[in-house]
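Appendix B.2, paired examples.
Example (i):
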Amino acid sequence: MELSVLNIKGEDTGKKVVMPESIFGIEPNTHAIYLDVKLYLANQRQGTHKSKERAEINHSTRKIKRQKGTGGARAGSIKSPVFVGGGRIFGPRPRNYSFKINKKVKSLARNSAFAVKAKADAISVLEAFSFDAPKTKTYLNVLNALSLSNTKTLLILPAVDSNIYLSSRNVPKAKVTTVDSVNTYDLMNADRLLISESALSILETQTNK
């Protein structure tokens, strides 16, 4: 699979890059993608939810009415879940939602996500670039030049570039990450991947380890 290298003005530089088959040419494993995305979303949950059960309610323990002769059901405590202000039955308790998946499954999931985007022709390779200063308008100009102003994009850089990151931070539907930090969720969530030319060799090196 060959792709043309574009510059930030959206022009073809005349260069071609061969996309690594070990990443972009594999048969996507949808179940691995599902597991990795599920893990990512589970890790976003705080798990601090808590409601009081009847033993934790601060109310009187006095029997609220006599046992018989009222015509209604027996009631021994105002803490009962059937009364307003009573405890909740089997309420939520703090818990950790994370779970474990193997490193090879995570790697397969990420490569599968790249392969899905490759099959959908949703990848553009950009010539290495940088900004002199962080400016949102500069990043918007790049997206407009690539005709991606209203598209959910993910830019993958070889290393952290503060000027590019800060320039993109306030742009809706735009996200910037690095090769080391890219994850399956971000890849699947984006409609278009923008990969820096210098990031491709790092991707291939990581996969062949």
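Example (ii):
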Amino acid sequence: MASNISSTSMAILALALALFVQGTLGGIICEHLDQDTCAFAVSSSGKRCVLEKHVKRSGEEAYKCRTSEIEVDKLKEWIETDQCIKACGLDRKTLGISSDSLLESRFTEKLCSPQCYESCPNVADLYFNLAAGEGVFLPKLCEVQTNPRRGMSEIRSSGFVAPGPLEAAKFTVASPALAPC
């Protein structure tokens, strides 16, 4: 009987230890990342991490890593490498990411380089989605990178935001406003 209690206690202890170790080591939680690893990271839950700046009462700036609401389909538990950050022309202390950077020819040149676009899937996915939000297809922008003026004019003149899946479905059904009376 004593050996049954002992083996049951050992099994419970082993399970508790396994759960503790998995919770401690088994994933990326944005709020646990420091400012040098936060930007361009994806948590274990598949959400992007964002670096936020706060000003303390003393006036000192402090940075915190937070989990955003932006989900990444294919990447989880990802912290972008220093090689990718450099190859893509990015900065670890980026506080916000804007599609405006796609208008800068130096940035798009680095983003579209094979060292970035083909080797850094997290960065490529992020900027692919940012470009799509502006109605621009990033592979096409990279293709016209040989003529930067054409690429920039394509972004500036787009003015059209690509519809999401639900919006696109609305346009495939005849609208009462367009139907004959």
